[in-house]
Amino acid sequence: MAVREKVINLVLAVGQTEVDFTTALDSGFILGAELHTNHINVDNYAEFGIFDDSGVAFSKPTPIDHWKRREGSGFADSYKPLLFETEHKTFQFKVKTKVPVIKETYFALILMYKIKPECK
User: Fold this and answer.
1) Per-residue DSSP letters for the chain?
2) How far is it, in rounded angstroms, from Cα 39 to Cα 105?
3) What is the Cα gyration radius of the chain?
4) Is the pLDDT of residue 120 over 50?
5) For residues 113 and 6, is the Cβ–Cβ distance under 8 A?
6) Which domain of life is it from (predicted)?
């Protein structure tokens, strides 16, 4: 198996409080994730979550700081651990803020995963 990255980009437009993106993931095992964002308004609480194809929170919405890469640990341990098989399922990635944003705000989630080679 090869270790790969997949980037999920979400952009919250000015005046909005929520954005989501739905996609199928390649078959593989998700090791963990890290989030990059230009959202710096600590008074405007922001949370990020992942939902499965039935709408159930797979990784419950939590503050965006919980998704950021951790300092001082090894490479694999620095990511938010997710540890799940994708099984070609569809997932929804959602970010939500408490009040509308005053500038375009991006959220880039980097998933680290092992891809299973396709059988021929």
Assistant:
1) -EEEEEEEEEEE-TT-SEEEEEEE--SEEEEEEEEEE----TTS-EEEEEE-TTS-EEEEEEEGGGGSPPSSS-TGGGSEEEEEE-TT-EEEEEEEESS--SS-EEEEEEEEEEEPPPP-
2) 6
3) 15
4) no
5) yes
6) Bacteria
* Domain spanning 2-115, CATH class: mainly beta
For residue 57, give both structure tokens. Answer: 């929170």
Share of the chain above pLDDT 70, in %: 88
The ranges assigned to domains in the chain are: 2-115
The pLDDT score that the predictor gives to residue 104 is 97
Residue 56's alpha-carbon distances to 52, 69, 87, 90, 92, in angstroms, are 6, 25, 16, 12, 10
Q: Could you tell me the CA-to-CA distances from 55 to 4, 34, 73 in Å, in that order?
A: 26, 22, 33
The structure tokens 């600590």 sit at 42
Beta bridge partners of 5: 112
